[in-house]
Amino acid sequence: MPGPLAGIRVVEIANYVAVPAAGTLLVDLGADVVKVEVPWGDFYRFATPKRNGYDSDFPLSANYQMDNRGKRSLALDLALPQSVDALKQLIAKADILITNTLPGRLAKVGLDLEALRAERPELIVARLGGFSPEGEQADDPGFDQTSFWALSGMMDQQRDPASPPAFFRPGVGDHCAALSMSTGILAALRHRDQTGEGQVVDVNLQQVGFYIGGNDSCQALATGHSPPRHDRLAPRNPLWNHYPTADDRWLLLVMIDSTIYWPTFCQAIGRPDLLEDDRFEDPRDRFKYNRELVATLDETFRKKTLAEWTDAFEGKKVICAPARTVLEAVTDARTQANGVFSTIDHPDHGSFQTVAPPFRLSEHDMHGTFPAPDLNAHTREVLEEAGVDAETVELLVSVGEQ
Fold it and tell me: What pTM value is reported for the model?
């Protein structure tokens, strides 16, 4: 069965992660997405595992495959007037334009977004920036690690009081922004169905950061104070904390209402004596003597390995999770059985797994099994579909192959 966005044509002028990931979600929903690349290719295309420090000969960029699967590749050098004219012809037949290119840079090559929309009011334009398009930083560049992580307050907040800020893994904010952009696009499509009018969907990484970190952001706005940081050695609730095990791994406890779980927990860890300790009788006492309780639990959890504790808690009324490595997480048999990964069948490099789309539809198979396109793979067919004259097609195909 065709996807809900079957027949929707999308032009993507973007690189790196956030907007390409949004484009891939539209592919998963059935849209035809043309990725416009420079003839030498998106930088992310060449970020193979070995270049990222892995001891691996996997020949492709796994990140690029995940965030560009199922698209068509159009290689254009926008320094050429013929390329700009061809791109305008392509956009003239598109339903949606998505981009993370700064407005000033697009305008320099003759792609003024407001002018494009004035010519075609039904066009939906979705654009991503590091910051709000109305503010002084509208044209400032930003990555997820800067705009989403550092400038939203999350980098400073996610640490023990005595520890330095954590270095954030790249791509998290980008994928959050991709979900935000795709949601906005779906709303804009619905609006166009009702009114015939397109609109601009603006997403910025800093705003997404404030939203994802909203539990802290809204409290800072309401109180005028930064929220207290979590202190592992003196938490408000020692049953909402993480503890080291005998094999130097970590176990996370999340028993928010500790009154309910305290008796079962003490029995499960083999410390029923703690139930008789007046210092730990109720949540207020456990907070008052939190350092003493954490020290006791540290000593207890150090007596068994992570696997032994995980087995000991199986079937018990103890809400916990091992802090897995990424490899442990993706190869876990139960996780694999949950269908959260899909298998890409690549024509040149065989089959390999990637992350499946983040939601499922009962009436549409969002399998995510298509490979990302080779660079310049669809330039000729895309230009011909757009109505570009044959001489220009030959010129631009040859430029893309250089």
Answer: 0.94
